[in-house]
Specification:
Layout (H helix, E strand, L loop, with lengths): L4 H23 L4 H36 L3 H20 L1
Helix pairs in contact: 1-2, 2-3
């Protein structure tokens, strides 16, 4: 569960709006660089939303697992984080 759902929701809605704008720009055969710039803004918003989700996960889910002193659960969560971080680095 996202603990900072408001921040993530706002970023996702802005990204959705920009995606719609990019689609309209494509349909209108707008200048390529203008489209690329809007597309990069969309990517930035999605990255921001993803980072906020990760921060919430670390600050709440992982912290709670550490407080429970369940080493197996904590190790599992750490492995999940590494997979997500590695995936993000490849993008």
């Amino acid at each position: 569960m996202a603990h900072n759902v408001d921040k993530v929701t706002i970023a996702m809605k802005k990204a959705q709006s920009l995606t719609n704008k990019v689609m309209k720009m494509l349909e209108d055969n707008r200048y390529c660089i203008d489209i690329v710039q809007q597309n990069l803004a969309t990517i930035g918003l999605l990255r921001s939303a993803n980072l906020a989700l990760l921060e919430g996960h670390v600050n709440h889910c992982v912290t709670d697992a550490a407080k429970e002193k369940d080493p197996k659960k904590l190790e599992e969560m750490m492995q999940e984080l590494l997979v997500v971080i590695n995936t993000a680095q490849k993008k």
